[in-house]
C-alpha cells in the first residue's frame, strides 16, 4: 500500500505561538471544556497521581491553574514542584504534553480570578475541605449553607489556602495523529542559549 507523504504539520519555531494556534482551534471544535488538562504530580518518593484541572491563563511565562492547597495535589505540589500537564483534544486528534516547575501566582492574580468565578463556586471553594474524608454529602451541603449565610450581603473572602500555580515549562511536546499511525511528534526543550530560548526535534511516533 502506498503511503501518502504529507508535509510536516508540527513546525519548528516558537512553541507558545503553536500552542496558541492549537488552543484556539480546540476552543472552536471541542464540545466541552477545551481548557481541560490532566495534571500529574508526585510525592517526594515518586508515587504519582493525576487529575483533570482547567487552564485559566497561559503565555510565555507558563500555564496557570487554581486549586485548594490542602488537597492531595496541593500537598504533593508543596513537597515536589515538578509536574506534567497533558492536553488531549479528541476532535482534533491532538495532544500537547508539558513538563516543568511550579511557581505560585501572586495574591493579586489569585484574588482577581477567585472573584471572577460564579458566587456559588466561590462559596463552594470556601466550604470544601478538598480531598479530606467526608462522612456524607449532607455534611458538605450543610457546610455550604453555613458559608452562604456567613457571607450574605458581602464579598466572599478567598481562603488563604486557595490559590493558583503557574507551570513554567522546561519541555513542550506536540503530537498530531496521522494516517496509518504514522503520527507526528515534535519536542521543544528550553535552551537559553538558542534563538528564541528553545530547541526542537521531531520524534519517532
The N- to C-terminal Cα distance equals: 20 Å
Helix content estimate: 25-40%
Structural class: alpha+beta
Which segments are poorly predicted (pLDDT under 50) over 5 or more consecutive residues? none
Q: How would you spell out the order of helices and strands?
A: HEEEEHEEHHHEEE
- Number of beta-strand segments: 9
CATH architecture of the domain at 15-109 and 165-203: Roll
Stated plainly, the CATH topology of the domain at 15-109 and 165-203 is called Pnp Oxidase, Chain A
The value of Rg in angstroms is: 20 Å
SSE layout:
Layout lengths: L14 H15 L6 E7 L5 E7 L2 E3 L2 E7 L3 H8 L2 E8 L4 E11 L2 H10 L2 H9 L9 H14 L11 E15 L7 E7 L7 E6 L2
Antiparallel strand pairs: 1-2, 1-5, 3-4, 4-7, 5-6, 6-7, 7-8, 8-9
Helix pairs in contact: 4-5
Structure overview:
Helix content is 27%, strand content 35%. By secondary structure, it is an alpha+beta fold. The protein has a domain at 15-109 and 165-203: Pnp Oxidase, Chain A (Roll). Strands 1, 2, 3, 4, 5, 6, 7, 8 and 9 form a nine-stranded antiparallel sheet that branches. A hairpin with a 5-residue loop joins strand 1 and strand 2. Helix 4 (119-127) packs across helix 5 (137-150). The radius of gyration is 20 Å and the shape is elongated. The model has no long low-confidence stretch (mean pLDDT 93).
Amino acid at each position: 500500500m502506498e503511503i501518502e507523504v504529507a508535509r510536516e504539520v508540527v513546525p519548528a519555531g516558537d512553541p507558545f505561538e503553536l500552542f496558541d494556534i492549537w488552543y484556539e482551534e480546540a476552543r472552536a471544535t471541542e464540545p466541552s471544556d477545551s481548557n481541560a488538562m490532566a495534571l500529574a504530580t508526585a510525592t517526594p518518593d515518586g508515587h504519582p497521581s493525576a487529575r483533570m484541572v482547567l487552564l485559566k491563563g497561559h503565555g510565555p511565562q507558563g500555564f496557570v491553574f487554581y486549586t485548594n492547597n490542602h488537597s492531595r495535589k496541593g500537598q504533593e505540589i508543596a513537597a515536589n514542584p515538578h509536574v506534567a500537564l497533558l492536553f488531549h483534544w479528541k476532535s482534533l486528534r491532538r495532544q500537547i504534553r508539558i513538563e516543568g516547575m511550579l511557581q505560585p501566582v501572586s495574591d493579586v492574580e489569585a484574588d482577581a480570578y477567585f472573584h471572577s468565578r460564579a458566587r456559588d463556586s466561590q462559596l463552594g471553594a470556601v466550604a470544601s475541605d478538598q480531598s479530606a474524608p467526608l462522612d456524607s454529602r449532607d455534611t458538605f451541603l450543610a457546610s455550604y449553607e453555613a458559608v452562604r449565610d456567613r457571607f450574605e450581603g458581602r464579598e466572599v473572602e478567598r481562603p488563604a489556602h486557595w490559590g493558583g500555580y503557574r507551570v513554567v515549562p522546561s519541555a513542550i511536546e506536540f503530537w498530531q495523529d496521522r494516517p496509518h499511525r504514522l503520527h507526528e511528534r515534535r519536542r521543544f526543550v528550553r535552551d537559553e542559549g538558542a534563538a528564541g530560548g528553545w530547541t526542537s526535534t521531531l520524534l519517532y511516533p
